[in-house]
Each structure stands twice: as structure tokens, then as C-alpha cells.
Amino acid sequence: MNFLIEALTGSECTRLKSHFEQVELELGQSLTEPEQPITHVYFPTNSLVSVIQMMRDGASVESGMIGREGMVGLQAWLGQTHASVRSIVQAPGQALRMRREVFLHEVVNAHSSWNSVIAKYIDSYITLLTITAACNRIHQVNERLCRWLKMTQNRVGRDSFPMRQEFMAHMLGVHRPSVSIAANALKKAGLIRYERGIMTVLDSERLEKNCCECYRAIESQFERALKVSLRKGDHEPGKHDLHGPPPDSGKDKNAL
Predict the structure, then answer these.
(1) pTM summary value
(2) Which CATH class is domain 3-227?
(3) What distances in angstroms separate CA 141 from CA 12, 105, 131, 192, one per listed residue?
(4) What is the pLDDT of residues 194-209, one digit of tens each?
């Protein structure tokens, strides 16, 4: 379940439940594009979305990630009609979505109690953006890769998820050989396994110990703000479980 939806009070959940639509998110699917209208806000339940910054020369780097702790299209809550960033699905799965105009009418302009929870999430997300920017500049690729994999695991709520080496390089803003070296070191150490397009975290505790300090700073901020245990591994279905079980992870021939 998405933690923001989990935070809905009983009466608000009842009032808003009919406005949510369950959707399947596919690997590489674009949810928002710069200067394009925001049509929906998305609440991932077992999928992961990357927020991408594109450069004029075609280079790209991930500036943020959104999973079961948050929402895609938060600019709508801030009163914007058009997106300023590209948001693409990094790990496929399910999400609940709501049309932007409905979200504005039923939540933002209705002075819903849910707004205070969303505000706390956005504050935490800003922390993620600022720390990630510093992390990409200061820390080594191996530390950043550990942070990225652990945060991905936390946000999809499972140990295995589809992943490609080229995609990881784009997300970390480095060349593919650098990711290969770092990933192979983690594999040899028994922390991860990757085969046929599926990344599996084998030793979550040791992977966390190899993360840079940014991992704990980011995740503890979300945990304090949302009062959840984000770093806890898989969670049981929530009190407002509006979706079915996680989909079976597909396989990608362009894998690691």
C-alpha cells in the first residue's frame, strides 16, 4: 500500500475511495514530461518512478525517486498545471491514480485533512532532492549504488525488481563501465544477485552498511514525517488496501 493513502482517516478514505483508479505501470513508461499538462497524480503501491533531469547534450541523471512513500505529480498540489520534470517508471508494478482536476477539487481546494500529510511528504521530498544533489557530487559510485539499490528496495517493498545496467548508469549519472565495476563488486561480496533482468538484494543489512551517509539522512526524514518504517522490508497489506497483490516481475533481455 501507498503510505500517503494509508494515512487517510476513515472518513476521508471513504469519501475519496471512488476517485482512485488502479493502474499497471510499465517499465520506462512516462508519467510526466516537462512543459506538458499534468493529467493525473499517481500513488505507487509496489512500483518505482524516477524523476529525471535532462541536459541539452542528451545526458541525464536521476534527481529523485518516488515509490510507496509518495506521489507523482506533486506540482499539481502546488498549484501548477504543467510538469517541470520528466517522471518515468523505473520498476514496474501497480499504482493508484486520481485525475488532477478531481484531486484539486476533492483534496486541495476542499481543505482535506490529507493536505497536511502531503505537505509533510513534499517537505521530505525536498530533503531528498537536496541531499541527492550533494551525494552525486561528493560520494563514490559504489556508495551511491548501494544507497540507490537500498532506497529502491524500500520503495517497491520487495527484494527483487527488474533492472538494467544502462538504466542504472543513467540514474547515477555515470558511464556504464563504472556501474558494472561497482555492481560486480557487490555481487562477488554476496550482497546482490542479478540475472536475466532481475536485480535481487540478498543481504539488505550489509547493503545498508555500505551506503553513504545520505541513505540514512533521507530515509529517516521520511520516517519521521510520515511516521512509517520505510526501511523495514516488506509490509503487510495496509488498512486501506485498495489494490491486489504485486504483479509477477517480468524479465528483460537487455538486463545486467
Answers:
(1) 0.86
(2) mainly beta
(3) 43, 44, 15, 16
(4) 888 899 999 999 999 9
